Amino acid sequence: MSDRLRELAIFVRTAESGSFSRAGRELGLSQPSVSRVVSELEARLGVTLLLRTTRQITLTDAGELFLERARDILAELEDAEDAARGIDSLRGNIRMALPVIYGTREIIPRLPAFLARHPQLRIELAIADQRQDLIAEGADIAIRMGTLSDSAFGARKLTTVERWIAASPAYLKARGTPKTPADLTKHDCITTRGGAGRESWSFARNGTEISVDVYGRIDTRSGSGVFASVMTGLGIAQVSSAMCGAEVKAGTLVRLLRGYTLAPIDVHAVFPGGPKPSIKVRALTDYLAQDIKRRKLG
């Protein structure tokens, strides 16, 4: 990489991560080296791109404009190189952010076949239930479930997953099986939104919406926390087919209230860099979309 392009890459990661030290760790450079490169870039341009304090780095107006153009230049160069090599010769890294349950059950098991097709590609996984700062993390692609919040990102819908009500056989043996949504008020329900363990669950049946206020002694915003809690018999939970399909099929969880439906969840691939991801990210997204559809139909 030429000195100018290296300079751009260092500036972009520093601006995105908000830290000279973090950018240095990711790029294999010392913190003073990163700081020096950015200072030399500013001196050459004759403008201040970053405002430094002891606690944080923020972009100036000029820095915002330069960051946008620098990202475009680096992305175009990467795409040009990948296009020249061809789709069968993709190389480099893809940084991917995943939610814990869907990522480990639905995405990671699909990666071996994709990587076998592209032996020079490497995928870095950031797995967490909390919504990561995708720009700061330097993510190329993220898998998001539910409503999308950041309209500046590009996105592609991959699939829709069903939501169910489920509980363990041990819980149902001890507490009984609810027959209607109203029966849930007599049960411990695993909640996910705080609010002292109270929340409203909405169902549909024959075109009519039914809402019921439920209560539980377990509240967690983690998908893996919901899964562990319902499997342990701590209560009745809203789960997705991706989270608990295998357990319901095996009988270690019981699907309840089958005559009532919950709103499904859309699953998207999200592109922090905008609506035109790189060739290798498009290749990964195409593969995931096709394989998810194929297995769903199969």
Strand content: 15-25%
CATH top-level class of the largest domain: Alpha Beta
Per DSSP, the total helix count is 11
Helix content: 40-55%
Which architecture of the largest domain would the CATH scheme give at its second level?
Answer: 3-Layer(aba) Sandwich
Oligomer kind: single chain
How would you portray this structure in words?
By secondary structure, this protein is an alpha+beta fold. The chain folds into three domains: 3-85, Orthogonal Bundle (Arc Repressor Mutant, subunit A), CATH 1.10.10; 92-159 and 267-296, Periplasmic binding protein-like II (D-Maltodextrin-Binding Protein, domain 2); 163-263, D-Maltodextrin-Binding Protein, domain 2, CATH 3.40.190.290. It has eleven helices and twelve strands. It has helices at 3-17, 20-27, 31-45, 61-85, 100-107, 111-117, 134-137, 169-175, 223-232, 241-250, 279-297; strands at residues 50-52, 57-59, 91-98, 120-127, 141-145, 154-161, 163-167, 198-205, 208-215, 237-240, 254-256, 265-271. It has a five-stranded mixed β-sheet with strand order 4-3-5-12-6, with helices on one face. A three-stranded antiparallel β-sheet has the order 10-7-11. Strands 1-2 form a two-stranded antiparallel sheet. It is elongated, with a radius of gyration of 23 Å.
